[in-house]
Structure formats: C-alpha cells, structure tokens
C-alpha cells in the first residue's frame, strides 16, 4: 500500500509541476501590459505600430486578433481589454450600448470594392454585373461581417440584393471574415468578392474595381478606449501615438490604408 | 463513495489480511474526478448563462433547424463513409506486412496532426486544380453540401482507421488461419470470422467518427463557407452567433448540440450493446 500511495504522490507531484509550468509560461500577461482587441483586418499595421511603440517607450502591448464581432463577444464576457480597434463604428456603437466604452477615435477611412483577379478578366465594371449568371461570388455574412452588412445595404438600395443573394447561395459562398473573401478570389474558388479597399491593397495579384454606389459610403476603422482599462492614462497615450499623422496613421498609410487626418506626434 | 471492487479469492488461504484498497480507489477518483468536474462545470456554467426563452428562440429559427438537420445527415454520411474505408485499411495494416507500411501509417495520421484550418485550405486548393475542377463539373463540391461531408470525412476517417486497426490487432488471427486450413479463402475467412468479431470495434469507430464529424468546424468554415440555409452546420451557427455578439444564442446552440450528441451516442451504443448480445 505504501507503494501505491507513493506512486499517487508522484503523479500528483507531476500534475503540480505542470500547473506551475503553465503559470510560469504566461509571463506576457503581466498586469502592466496594454491589452488591445484588434480587428483581424488591421493586423499588419497594428503589429508594426505596437512593436515600434514598445521599442520607443518600453510599454508592453498585447494584441489579440479576431473578427470584430467575435472580439465584441469576448469583451462582453471577460471585460479585460484596454482598447478595442473595430473594423467599423457599428461595433463600437454596440459596445457603447453595453456601456463598455469611454471614448472613441477614427483611424482609417474605408470603402467597399469589388475584388477581382489582376487585369479584371471577367470585365466587371458596374454593380449590375454582380448578377451575371456566369459569376461565382464570395460575400461577407450580413450578420457576422461588417463588410457583409454594408454589401447587403448597398445591393438592397440598388434592388439587386434578392437576386445576388440567390446566386451566391447557388454558386458562391458567404463567409464571416473579410480576408477569407479575398483569399477565395486569389485561390480561384470564386471570381469576385466584395471586400474593403485596404484588403485588396494587401494582395498584389488582386485588383479593386471601384463603384460609385460603394464609394458613396465611407466607413471608419475606429479605436475605442474601454471602461475596463486598468491604466486609462497609458491607454490614452497609445491612442495619441496611434492617431498621430507622423506615427500610427503613417504606418497605416504605408500599409495601403486610407488613414484619417491626424495631428503630429511630438516627443 | 462508489462501491469498492473486491479482489475475491486472492487472500483466502492466508490468515494475513490484505491492506485496504480504499486509499488507492480514492486516489483514482481524485485524479479522474478533476476532469469529470471540469466537464460538468462547463455544462453547468453554460446552463446558468441561459434563459429558457433563448431555447425557444433557436427552435423557432429556420436557419438553426436547417443546420441541425444538415449536421445530423452530413455527420452520419461521413461516419458511414469513414467505416467503409477504415475497415479495409485497418484490416490491411493489422494482417499484412508490406514495404512502406510505416510510411502509410504516418500518412494516415496526417489528418489528426494537421491544424483544422490547414485541412480546409488544402481541400479548397485541391479542388481548384485540374483534377478537382473536373470533379466539380460532375458534382459541385466547393461551397456546396458535399464539401461538408468531405471535410468531415477526412478528419473522422483517420480516427476510425486507428480504431479499426487496434480492433483487428486484438482479434487473434489464428482463427482466420484455422478457417483457411479448413478450406476458406482469405476473403471468406475475413467475412465469416474477422468481420463478425470486429462488430464492437466498428461500432466504436463509427460513433467516434460521427462525434468528430458532428463537432467539426475549422475545415468546414474554409472549404464550405458559412452560407445560411446551405452550408451552415451547428458549429457554424455557434460561430455566427458569437460573431454578432449573441452569446446567449451561441450557448443555446451549443447546448442543443450537446443534447443531440448525447441522445445519438446513447441510443447507438445501447442498440449496439443489444446487438452484441444476440
């Protein structure tokens, strides 16, 4: 029996060691890090901005990527973020309704465009072309993706939605992440997708077709300061950096985004 | 405390009394109990998050009803397909020696090792190649319902193969050899001896494959998309509800999934146990 007890003791000890190891591993989640929930579409410039900011001011930044809606769900559940960078204002509006937001600032202007293979082989030029019977389309889910909602509204206004939706259900696909839509065109699984202009800018083999109906509606990538922030002062300072025309906004522009106007960052 | 198992007859001859088994069993229960408590805790937390009206809401949604039906049908088909493939592969691996067997073994583990997103992406790319497009001309696959079954099958089958192989490994091949010496061909020995004996293993493999298929999400999102009333299965519904911030809806669909899965698994296993007794 002694023997059995000893063994169980050893096993429990091993379990304890594993738990200790897990605790020791997660050093990055230290209390003084700024936690930013970041829309997946802004991953590239935000990663660079966070890196430069960490280097310059020694503040550690933890970026958590996801679809804006998914991040919003997480915010509602956990209440652990300092900042929330959302793909458009509607998410910030919803977070406001749940009383999670202190303040908000626009970062990037974006418009919907039609993404096609370079050279536009299928000659897509007008909104009406989207209902062509030979076309395979990839659209965002209207309830899950902000680009999907906007696409639905614009096509409804042009009285094309019912027809286009049917054609997507028959030959195309609805997906919840905007980058997946662009990937579909790139792989060749569909012919066209409706995505944000700044997404196409990140794909060298895709081309953006601008349409007046889409251009008329400008949405904004927006950053919000959250109530749950443990260090609002540090969070505000990062927002200033992010929305400075010679710092964060410049890096967004360099990544192909249409950054809003901002003021200069002065040391 | 659950009734303790007693090792009868071990110590009857000796006056010496065996030390108590209680600490050992308590140790087992403590170690295993943590896991069971974790599972039950998750379920209870989910249930606490819900209001009965959330259930009414999801039952009234035609999208969720469609997704439930599609989930049940597609995972059942995927499980059947998996069995159909897993039995011959399992038998081959268990009974025959051939060159490249260990390589084949490794290949069969790839779907288990690969991240789900990679499986989805690889399937998507495969069906854009010349061969894939030729198949698509006959049956539309990408973004259509067959893509769901294929995505589920690819992963579920790997688990079914593992199960079938260990099933045949545990069945003594000597009985088939005896059947052969009595005049059976290899195929007759398989159908008359090995196959009936493997029924329990097939049931396990089938339910395992079904459960994997029912819960699969990552590959489906990429390869089938999330088109409502077409390629939306229950895990997709959970994800879509999550992405609009409707946590109550997501949890309600999750509970529905758990209920459906438990009912199906209990019924199939119960039925299977009865079949075994016959």
Defining traits:
heterodimer; A: 267 residues; D-Maltodextrin-Binding Protein, domain 2; 6-stranded mixed beta sheet; 5-stranded mixed beta sheet; B: 278 residues; mainly alpha; MetI-like fold; 2 domains; 13 helices
Radius of gyration of chain B: 23 Å
Percentage of residues in helical conformation of chain A: 40-55%
The gross shape of chain B turns out to be globular
The poorly predicted ranges of chain A are none
Structural class of chain B: mainly alpha
Q: How confident is the prediction overall: mean pLDDT of chain B?
A: 89
Largest Cβ-defined interface = A-B, 32 and 32 residues
Distance between the termini of chain B: 34 Å
Write the H/E string of chain A, N to C: HEHEHEHEEEHHEHEHEHEHHE
β-strand percent of chain A reads: 15-25%
C-alpha termini separation of chain A: 70 Å
Q: CATH homologous superfamily of the largest domain in chain A, by name? A: Periplasmic binding protein-like II
Estimate the strand proportion of chain B: under 5%
From the 3D structure, determine the CATH topology of the largest domain in chain A: D-Maltodextrin-Binding Protein, domain 2
């Amino acid at each position: 029996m002694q023997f059995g007890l000893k063994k169980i003791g050893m096993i429990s000890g091993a379990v304890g060691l594993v738990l200790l190891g897990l605790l020791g591993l997660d050093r990055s989640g230290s209390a003084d890090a700024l936690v930013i929930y970041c829309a997946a579409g802004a991953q590239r410039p935000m990663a660079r901005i966070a890196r430069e900011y960490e280097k310059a001011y020694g503040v550690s930044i933890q970026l958590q990527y996801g679809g804006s809606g998914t991040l919003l769900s997480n915010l509602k559940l956990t209440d652990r973020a300092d900042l929330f960078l959302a793909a458009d204002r509607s998410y910030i509006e919803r977070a406001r309704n749940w009383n999670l937001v202190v303040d908000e600032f626009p970062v990037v202007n974006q418009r919907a465009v039609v993404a096609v293979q370079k050279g536009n082989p299928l000659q897509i030029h007008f909104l009406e072309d989207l209902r062509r019977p030979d076309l395979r389309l990839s659209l965002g889910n209207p309830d899950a993706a902000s680009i999907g909602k906007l696409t639905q509204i614009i096509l409804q206004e042009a009285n094309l939605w019912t027809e286009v939706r049917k054609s997507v259900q028959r030959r195309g696909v609805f997906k919840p992440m905007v980058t997946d839509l662009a990937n579909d065109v790139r792989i060749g699984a569909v012919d066209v997708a409706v995505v944000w202009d700044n997404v196409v800018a990140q794909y060298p083999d895709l081309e953006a077709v601008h349409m007046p109906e889409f251009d008329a509606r400008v949405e904004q990538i927006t950053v919000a300061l959250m109530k749950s922030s443990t260090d609002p002062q540090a969070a505000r300072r990062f927002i200033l950096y992010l929305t400075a025309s010679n710092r964060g906004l410049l890096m967004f522009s360099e990544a192909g985004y249409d950054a809003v106007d901002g003021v200069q960052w002065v040391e | 405390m659950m009734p303790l198992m007693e090792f009868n007859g071990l110590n009857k001859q000796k006056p010496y009394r065996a030390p108590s088994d209680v600490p050992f069993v308590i140790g087992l229960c403590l170690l295993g109990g943590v896991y069971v408590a974790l599972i039950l805790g998750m379920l209870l937390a989910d249930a606490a998050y819900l209001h009965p009206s959330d259930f009414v809401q999801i039952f009234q949604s035609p999208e969720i009803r469609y997704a439930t039906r599609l989930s049940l049908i597609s995972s059942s088909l995927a499980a059947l397909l998996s069995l159909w493939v897993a039995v011959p592969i399992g038998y081959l691996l268990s009974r025959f020696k051939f060159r490249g067997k260990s390589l084949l073994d490794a290949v069969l583990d790839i779907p288990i090792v690969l991240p789900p997103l990679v499986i989805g992406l690889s399937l998507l790319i495969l069906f854009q190649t010349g061969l894939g497009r030729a198949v698509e001309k006959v049956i539309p696959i990408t973004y259509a319902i067959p893509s769901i079954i294929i995505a589920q099958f690819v992963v579920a089958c790997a688990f079914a193969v593992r199960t079938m192989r260990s099933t045949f490994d545990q069945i003594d091949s000597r009985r088939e050899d005896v059947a052969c010496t009595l005049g059976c061909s290899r195929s007759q020995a398989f159908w008359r001896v090995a196959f009936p004996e493997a029924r329990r293993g097939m049931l396990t493999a089938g339910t395992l494959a079904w459960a994997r298929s029912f819960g699969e999400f990552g590959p489906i999102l990429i390869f089938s998309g999330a088109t409502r009333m077409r390629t939306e299965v229950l895990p997709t519904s959970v994800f879509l509800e999550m992405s609009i911030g409707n946590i109550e809806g997501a949890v309600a669909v999750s509970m529905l999934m758990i209920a459906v899965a438990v009912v199906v698994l209990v019924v199939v296993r119960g039925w299977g146990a009865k079949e075994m007794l016959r």
